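SEVERITY: medium
COMPONENT: batch folding queue
REPORTER: lab tech (J.R.)

DESCRIPTION
The queue accepted two submissions in a row. Attaching both inputs and their returned structure tokens so the on-call engineer can compare them side by side.

ATTACHMENT 1
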Amino acid sequence: MPDCIIVGGGIIGLLTARQLFLEGVDVLLLEKGPLGGESSWAGGGIISPLYPWYYDDAVNVLAQRSKILYPSLTKELFEENGNDSELINSGLFTVIDDDPTQRQVIFDWIDRWSIDARYVDEKAAIRQIESTVGDAVDKGIWMPDILQIRNPKFVVALKASFEHLSIPYQEHCTVEEIITDGSKVTGVKTGQENYPTDKVVIASGAWSAQFSVTQASVKVNPVKGQMIMYNGEPDLVKRIVLAEGHYIIPRKDGRILAGSTLEKIGFDKSTSSSALDELHQAAVQLIPLLADLKIERQWAGLRPGTEKGIPYICQHDDVEGLYVHAGHFRNGIVLGAASAQLMVDVILNREPWCDAIPYTMQAAH
């Protein structure tokens, strides 16, 4: 019998299970589809929240720690199994408007978190940062040390780590219910069999509130995001550019991502021509040369939405042995490395590396 079962094999579940295993915990990870097959695969992989100055401290503290952790984590994975997660420094230019109040909020955030950032409003200086931008990119905040990770490759590296370390997992194994005896976890029920255990971590992304023990207590809902990808040449675009919620992410091999929509329409992962048009038009405004590139692909993923974007990283209040690690919304990869560390601290009942109260069941999420 495993000490702990992790329900969900996205980035959050993978990082949690791996960290627990490295701490000596006998784990089993169960995933209803392929590992990393939902929003972990579908996202953009920017190692920063979009517009971080509008987020609660609870999000920023995780983001800042994860930013420090990812270089060593991806290096460890590469040395362990040879899979490159393509963590690269692209920097991020965020277009902002002329609102002095907004600008002061941004400057206060920069000072508080000691961020390397500056305001740029001269066309020549902006073109030095990214030569391909259009006229819509006329002023904004430049953060030169923002990283990105190629999330599908990160998933591959984590799966290879599970193989290398012999961490038990099962794909295509749907957990239908959490089994309890009174107010205590005793196992999980799948379509194939029941698995006994004393501890269960629900890390099921947008599906985390679908169990009877979480339906009333965990406020996580699916939020669809659609993206498109262009096929370009390496270094054609060098920087991540963001304006009015739409962003451009240049990959190492020349592919360029454009995202993303925000759609609260339930568990629907279909793509639409209207979303493609919206994303393409926004992308061309930011980087005009994209008008001449082929759109190679369009896809959608379901984010685990919470109202404030603050995840649950906690023990359940009413069920002993049940833990919830979900609700990271748009920032699963951004927060993942630090979030997994905190979840492991909670599970092992040791002093957490940060204040854990903002991530508890009763906190505002």
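ATTACHMENT 2
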Amino acid sequence: MRVLQCIWKMSVGGTEGQLLRMASALVRRGIDLHIVTALAGDYDGAVTAQMHRVAPRFKYDPSSFFGIGALCHRLQPDIVHTFLTQMDIVAGMTATTLRIPWILSERSNAEAYPPVLRHRLRIAAGRRANAIVANSIGGADYWHRMAPNAGCIRVVPNIVPVSEIEAASAVDDVIPGDVVLYAGRFSAEKNLFNLLDALAPLLHTRDVTAVFCGDGPLRAELERKAHELGIDSRTRFLGNVTNVWSWMKRASAVTAISTFEGSPNVALEAAAAGTPLILSDIPGHRAEFAEDAAWFVDGSSPQSIRSGIAEALRNRGEAKARAVRARHGISSRSEDEIASQYEQIYREIIG
């Protein structure tokens, strides 16, 4: 079976990291897997599947349709599997035109898709997909509303490499006291300005350092705000790191206060690392964690966020108990287990 997976760029990110792991497992299972991207990315050298490149001059460049169409004619894939908006539109419409079975992968939920043209185009294209596979119930619900006549909408959860996370050792650093960690993209939905407002009084009055792992369009603004709050000496912006699980194990608490999530990768991985969680009270977090497995806070309120963090740092026994319950609530979602579910869907679609 030959599968062509399509993503705009294999850069550092949640979807890209999941695709990298899934691809490795599918290749091990004997799938003839090819991945096409539009731009060079950080993960290109780590991909075990065969890589291809189209070269658009800009997003949604019409030449992308011809490039992917030519690739499909050459490879003759049994399945086209798309990830994220650009390729859902470009490669999805190409697959539909060429009558190649197409799977759209939903990585978020309704809040990620305001009613702008590109999202309307994605919905119109997605209604013609042979299957839609979401990584969360929220994502599946979105497509049940947008494509009520869709024949196949499934949920396949994200990979959580529990054994690898457990094997990681804590960062050996010289930071004194407690570390409060954020890991992920620096973008608006991650609610990081409220997080800084919540952290400022704690960093001024306690032996606490805030560590931010990741990057994104808001990084410069966040660093500037930390300076304005007078906490830049107690705040570290590390950029993208390769040892985020080790930082999770060093941390006294991990914060994830997004305004919405599909499948909350960072929270799941922090739970596997055994680190107490401070989570925004949103459906994506509630779907994964019980009430007594984390501190759920109002992400719109810096005071609520600060109270959750302070309680986790103050009450160590309760923090440990909640972390244990969060860890027990995570079933192993290994690469091979998740790849097996995708392979089954592939085979069902092509008959």
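NOTES FROM REPORTER
Residues 6 and 82 are 5 Å apart (CA to CA).
No errors were logged for either attachment.
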